[in-house]
Design a protein that fits this description.
alpha+beta, four-stranded mixed β-sheet, Helix Hairpins, 167 residues
Length: 167
């Protein structure tokens, strides 16, 4: 494995561990071991890459994103044609010119748009399954303009009712 790919693999593992740590509660039994794992993983990553990861994460954005159909899955902007050839050779780390996330091509075809990483942890899968069972069936979404107009009409109707009561 090329050294840059090893760094990318370590960075992906760090992102997974940090997400898992974020999901655990402050009094969880697993929290101390996860914190140690995160620290151990952070030591494997070179300082410039780690500081870039921390800066992107501090802004609330994803620091690592897969590329699917030549689109960055962090910002959904197309990867420039010149970068596609280099990205497919995978001999260096590549950063999205738009959002700053480290880009990689997923190994399998099982990654879906919006997935942070191509493989979810078992705990994340279990939580997603539980949430899907509890969530009510989604109604078909109305276009945003229609929702805004309906909200405005409801406000106008309430105001007209208040005015008619006072007169």
């Amino acid at each position: 494995m090329h050294p840059s790919q090893q760094v990318l693999t370590d960075l992906i593992a760090l992102v997974r561990l940090e997400a898992e740590l974020k999901e655990t509660g402050p009094r969880s039994k697993d929290r101390p071991t996860l914190e140690k794992s995160v620290e151990k993983q952070r030591k494997k990553i070179p300082v410039p890459i780690l500081s870039h990861h921390d800066r992107i994460k501090a802004k609330g954005r994803r620091s690592v994103a897969p590329v699917q159909d030549w689109i960055c899955r962090a910002c959904f902007i197309s990867v420039p044609v010149g970068s596609r050839q280099q990205l497919s050779h995978a001999d260096d780390l590549f950063i999205c010119e738009n959002c700053g996330a480290y880009l990689y091509l997923p190994d399998g075809t099982d990654s879906r748009p919006g997935d942070e990483l191509p493989v979810q942890s078992e705990r994340s899968k279990r939580i997603a399954t539980e949430l899907a069972k509890k969530a009510p069936a989604k109604k078909t979404a109305k276009p945003k303009k229609i929702e805004i107009m309906e909200d405005r009409l409801a406000v106008i109707k309430k105001l007209s009712e208040k005015l008619s009561k006072t007169n």
